[in-house]
Amino acid sequence: MSTTESVVYYDVEDDFAVEPPGPVRAWVRRGGLSTLVFALPMLVIFGVFSWLPIVNSVVMSFQRTNLVAPAKWVGWANFAYVLNDPLLPTAIGNTLWFAVLALLIGYPLPLVVAVLMSEVRRFRGLYSALAYLPVVVPPVVSVLLWKFFYDASPTGVFNTILGWVGLGPYPWIQDADWAMPSLVLAATWAGAGGTIIIYLAALTSVPPELYEAAEIDGAGIWRKIWHVTMPHLRGVLLITLILQVIATAQVFLEPYLFTNGGPANATLTVLLLIYNYAFANSLGGNYGAATALSLMLAIFLAIMSIVYFRLTRSWSEE
Amino acid sequence: MKPTTRGLALGLASVIGAVSLAACAGGQAPAPVAPASPTQDEKVTISVVSLLPGSEQAAIDAFNAQVKEFEAANPNITIEPQEYEWKATTFAAQLAGGTLPDVFEIPFTDAKTLIQNQQIANLDAQFKTLPYADKFNENILNAGKGDDGQVYAIPAKNVYGVGLHYNRKLFEKAGLDPNKAPTTWDEVRTDAAAIAKVAPGVAGYMQMTQNATGGWQLVANTYAHGGRVQTANPDGSFTSTLNNDGTKAALQMLKDMRWTDNSMGSNFMFDWSSINQAFAAGKVAMYTSGSDVFTSLVQTNGVKPETYGLGAMPQSDSPDAGVLTGGTMAAMAADATDAQKNAAIKWIDFFYLRKLVDKDRAIADAKTLAANKQPVGTPVLPMFNRAQWEENQTWIKDYINVPLDQMTGYTDTMFDLKLVGEPSRSTQEIYKLLDTVVQTVLTKKDANIDELLTKANNQAQALLDQQG
User: Fold this and answer.
1) What is the pLDDT of residue B109?
2) Is the predicted pLDDT of residue B443 greater than 50, yes or no?
3) In this structure, are residues B353 and B347 in contact, taking their beta carbons and an 8 Å threshold?
4) B440/A263 Cβ within 8 A
5) How far apart are CA B242 and CA B433, in angstroms?
6) In whole angstroms, what separates CA B168 from the centre of its chain?
7) Would you state the pLDDT for residue B468?
8) DSSP B264-319
């Protein structure tokens, strides 16, 4: 009796118990639907504003269009155009030059500052705030400010200051040879704060007893830095290095605002060239060439990023 | 450099380009242009070019007064003033992105290609409603006509000849006669050196170098030396002649002033607005630009009128020497509606043109400007003909407040010198190639002018061939 009753009961009240649940229902039961609903706005926004434009630009790199008349398929013509453009080697060379200068000036400087700051005991917060302050200044504002400082006349701000110690006047951004180092200097000032904070955080992870042990062994400050601090920063240094290389490959703001690629194309970078292809012509840009070069740069940066992920993985596994 | 998480996004840089490009890709094809008869009643709002960004309050007040007057006469039209400066390097992006005012301004040189590309609207029906439509100088009007003979862009605002602008105060300081503008390039060179000597940090003479304006002014300088930068062939093709003797002479002069005399100061990156700024600030003693630039020097840069002088573009002995002339046209984006176009033509008539041909309107306009202490009477070239232009000058005689006696160097010869239009093909692109040439000459001591021009000429020819 009771068995019969229980069978009836299950039949009437609960289908699921009789048949095994389907995969969709199981997915819904596990909360998949609500996850999807929550994720949907993000997916739509990401799809419409990120992936759709990316796909469109890949398509556009094989077309000739002025965004008004219907686009024409041109095969690899845009890529051929870009690769034959005499300005491309100039732009790549300038971008590499920027990267090298940034490595020479911009890479070691934050490290030195961070190590020095970690050594001081008093006013540490003040120093941190001062070091980070330039990062807070909007980039356009800082560029315009530096542009003013870089006035090449003897009465310019930097030239006046350097004149007090008998140096200069220097041409700064008004000279093809000086322009790029000047840009790197300003970019370093603007960006060093963020890196300094990263290094400072990494420095706190160095166990103090290692310094004490080194001191007992008679190590001075430089030997402590070289034998204790640096090995602990190795991983962070590697990451910041690769991130910097990727960031410098994309340098746009400084050359665009300081010199617009001049003087005489001395600061024309790859990204500025892309911008110029697309937007600098008053009669409608060469959007095909711009997207073609964008695509090539994207592939290059993707390779860089893979290297980055490989390296960071091996670092975190150590 | 700041290594940041930027690097994590694969190829973010390219994505920036890609996103901005593709975001524009959704732009719609222009609606078929159907001339319509203007209607009176429909309520419509149009945005129009007001003044340059950063203009002084008095200039804004004067403009607003004109808007009020227009709206009172046309109650169905609302005007939205929008600050605007045409720049070769931003115009295309603004047009594609739809951020231009409804009625915007373009240089003569660009209209034909914009029409071919179907990027600007057909305003023919509206243009024909102007009572003086048939009185325009045909050459000027032609710049805004399509292959179909219809009017797409309407001459507006100005027709200029390039002149030599100079700072009278710096002339006096150097012991030069401020009432005597240099009339030859040798005099320009001597005067520049004299000024640079007594005023350290000041450029005795400077030229624009950036954003296609470097090429624009080098071509003006080329014409002044009797050269031309492109020639039309009987078969319809064009030949680039950037390596002509006039351009070489113009560049050699810059090279000598820069590296031998050191009379060009120490800043060499200027475009139209930044050289105006430097001139008004007394950092540049002489430069060449459109004859009408005084108005924006006053409205935007606060130049002191008593320091300003305008001379004719110095001409070489060559029989081909001439003055570069150009100007501004009013146009609308291809997707403008008929109601907008009908409103726009009324605004173009009211703001730009009627004051040139109608006595009452000329006086009313001059009165408003003068009351707001805005320049009246800045020298421009006639849009219709010389007789009409002279008549117009007599109408507004009482309101002219610009120091015309300091501009006689230009006005005395403005109808005598040969006027030469800008190169008609790939103009702005060729100007940009020449930017690089001018910048190189001014920033690299060992620059080889012949080599630079040969290289630029090959590139320019490729552009011309591409355009067919």
Assistant:
1) 86
2) yes
3) no
4) yes
5) 10
6) 24
7) 57
8) S-S-----HHHHHHHHHTTSBSEEEEETTHHHHHHHHH---GGGEEEEEPP--S-T
- Provide the whole-model pTM: 0.83
Smallest CA–CA separation between A175 and chain B, in Å? 5
Chain A: closest CA distance from residue B102 (Å): 17
Which residues touch B1 (CB under 8 Å, ≥6 apart)? A102, A106, A107, A184, A187, A188, A191, A192, A195, A244, A247, A248
* Three-state SS sequence of A59-127: HHCCEECCCCCCCEECCCHHHHHHHHCCHHHHHHHHHHHHHHHHHHHHCHHHHHHHHHHHHCCCCHHHH
Angstroms from A18 CA to nearest CA on chain B: 49
The helix (H) or strand (E) run that includes residue A134 is helix A124-136
Nearest CA in chain B to A272: B17
Pick the more confident residue, B173 or A65.
B173
Between residues B15 and A70, the one the model is more confident about: A70
Mutate to test the interface with B, among A63, A67, A306 (most CBs of B within 10 A): A67
Closest chain B CA to residue A302: B10
Across the interface, whether the CB atoms of B428 and A107 are under 8 A apart is answered no
What is the full per-residue pLDDT of chain A (318 aa) written as tens digits? 444 444 444 444 455 555 566 788 888 888 888 888 999 999 999 999 999 999 999 999 999 887 767 788 999 999 999 999 989 999 999 999 999 999 898 888 888 888 888 877 788 888 888 888 888 999 899 999 999 999 988 888 999 999 999 997 899 999 989 999 999 999 999 888 888 988 888 888 888 888 889 888 888 888 888 888 888 888 888 888 888 888 888 899 999 999 999 898 999 999 999 999 988 777 777 899 999 999 999 999 888 888 877 877 766 555
Residues of chain A contacting B19 with CB distance shorter than 8 Å = 49-50, 53-54, 57
Asked whether the beta carbons of residue A282 and residue B110 sit closer than 8 angstroms, the reply is yes
CB pair distance less than 8 Å for A107 and B1? yes
A-B contacts at Cβ under 8 angstroms: 244
Residue whose tokens read 């996850």: A35
Averaged pLDDT score across all residues of chain B = 88
Range of lowest pLDDT (A231-240, B183-192, B388-397): A231-240
Residue pair A106/A187 in contact (Cβ under 8 Å)? The answer is yes
User: In this complex, do B13 and A70 lie within 8 Å of one another by their Cβ atoms?
Assistant: no
Mark yes or no for CB contact A67/B96 under 8 Å: yes
Question: Chain A window 240-259: which residues touch B at a Cβ cutoff of 8 Å?
Answer: 240-244, 246-250, 252, 259
Rounded Cα–Cα distance for residues B129 and B345 (Å): 8
Strands B286-290 and B154-167, bridge-based pairing: antiparallel
Tokens 């009408």: give the residue.
B292
CATH numeric code, A77-316? 1.10.3720.10
Query: Which of A118, A90, A108, A21 is closest to A263 using CA atoms?
Result: A90
Q: B20 to chain A: which residues are within 8 Å by CB? A: 278
Contact yes or no for A56 and B200 at CB 8 A? no
For chain A, count helices (H), then strands (E). Answer: 18, 2
| B299-346: pLDDT as tens digits | 889 999 999 999 999 999 999 999 999 999 999 999 999 999 999 999
| Spans of all domains in chain A | 9-60, 77-316
pLDDT in tens, B295-306: 999 988 999 999
Distance CA B334, CA B31 (A): 7
Q: Is B332 exposed, middle or buried (0-12, 13-18, 19+ CB in 10 A)?
A: buried
Nearest chain B residue to A171 by CA distance is B266
Residues of A in contact with B432 (CB under 8 A): 280-281
Q: Are A258 and A184 in contact (CB under 8 A)?
A: no
**How many other CB atoms sit within 10 Å of the CB of residue B83?**
14
